[in-house]
Design a protein that fits this description.
There is one protein chain. This protein is mainly α and 103 residues long. The chain is built from five helices and two strands. A two-stranded antiparallel ribbon has the order 1-2. The radius of gyration is 20 Å and the shape is elongated.
Length: 103
């Protein structure tokens, strides 16, 4: 059974939100980084999740950047895009370097 909602002020709400954000950051930082198999094949949705961007942003912007890894597999226009994990990781680790050199 749920407890009835109690009214809080806007200031109390924002304080709770800040507390939650702090807890999330602490949890994320306490997790060991995931070990990736660099030969693994990722879908575009997995690439977007890794990069923490939306799928739409990935498909509309990122994959068209000059240094973005080429899709592996079939080159048909409507075929699902798939990428080698190691190439994606390398791209994002070096993305700022690529952006400076193209500006």
């Amino acid at each position: 059974m749920m407890e009835p909602l109690k009214k809080i002020t806007l200031a109390q709400f924002w304080q709770m939100m800040n507390d939650i954000e702090g807890r999330i950051i602490a949890l994320e930082q306490s997790q060991p980084p995931r070990a990736f198999n660099h030969e693994e094949i990722w879908t575009a949705k997995e690439v977007a999740a890794y990069a923490r961007v939306s799928y739409g942003y990935l498909m509309q912007k990122l994959i068209h950047e000059p240094h973005f890894p080429k899709s592996v597999g079939t080159a048909k226009k409507n075929a699902p895009k798939k990428y080698r994990a190691g190439e994606i990781i390398h791209y994002f680790e070096n993305r700022n370097h690529h952006l400076k050199n193209t500006q």
